[in-house]
Amino acid sequence: MELIEGYTHQSGVHCGAAALRNVAQYYGWNYSEGACFGIGGGPAFVLYEHPEKPWVTFRASSTWLERAFLERIGAPHSFRKGDDFQTAWENVTGHVDDDDPVLLFLDPAPLSYLPEEPDHLPHHVAVLIGYDDETVVLSDGALETRQEVSRATLEEAWTSDGFVPLDNEYLTVTRARTTEDGTDAAAAGLRQAATYMIEPLHVKRDARGPGEEGLPALRSFGDYLSAWADLPDPVRPVRAARRSIDEHGDGAAFRGLYAESLDELGQRTGLAHDLSDRMASVAEEWRTVAEILGDILEEDEPDPAHFEEAASLVGDIAEREEAIFESIADELGHVDEE
What we know:
By secondary structure, the protein is of the alpha+beta class. The protein folds into 2 domains: 2-30 and 77-173, Cathepsin B, Chain A; 182-332, no CATH class. The chain is built from 11 helices and 12 strands.
């Protein structure tokens, strides 16, 4: 089997940020998972409405994180999608032959090593670090150990026609150097996240599908949540919402990870010290929402009061997140267009 030597696998909170952290360490760059998440503009809120159904699915992190991180630190890289499987396979295995790990964007459903009901929508990010004719070795930050899957499974997972379409997408570093100042990269990532959450249309990033975004989407989710009590069967939307909050066991819609970002990157950029603590407190509120949704799923007859309680907490979260992101924008400036 062809295997990249010197690559260290570590698990993490967010699949994409953990993958970036592992790749960054392989190339000798000094970035933590929190730093990767923050520089990539990680926190998000995207609401996907189901056609002709009275419920929604959401994601709480951005779909552009990995490319944005490499752009901001000035690391030369290549992103490709749309090739047929055989062409894409030959390209990515060629990178592995050259000892360059490859970030793959995957549908989590076919990956049997993940839970039967994966905790999030595509894309899921894993790093290709080895292969032979029939097997691939993946460094997946959702697990403590490297994983082996068949080439056939990779082929199935590499495409998706769901909310977030995938077409054999991959990202690889093409030259192991960085050209941008780390403080500037941190400020740019924090600035983009703040502007995106407050005024999502001002940030020209692709959310990979139709949907409301940012804090307006978060508030809309609260409205939907309060109405789910009237559905004949609210289990499916409640379960999907709880999984989105509890992705990879984080339980906090990645706001705990973003608190770490604000702590580390805020020291570089001169942000107020209390912003990290404030975001950590928001993360606890997200955990409470997840717990309430879990209680609803265990009830024989869902209690409407629990839906109202969760919706009220989501409204409070939206207000608190807005205040935090406004503070970041006030200190670092807004993004007019990106």
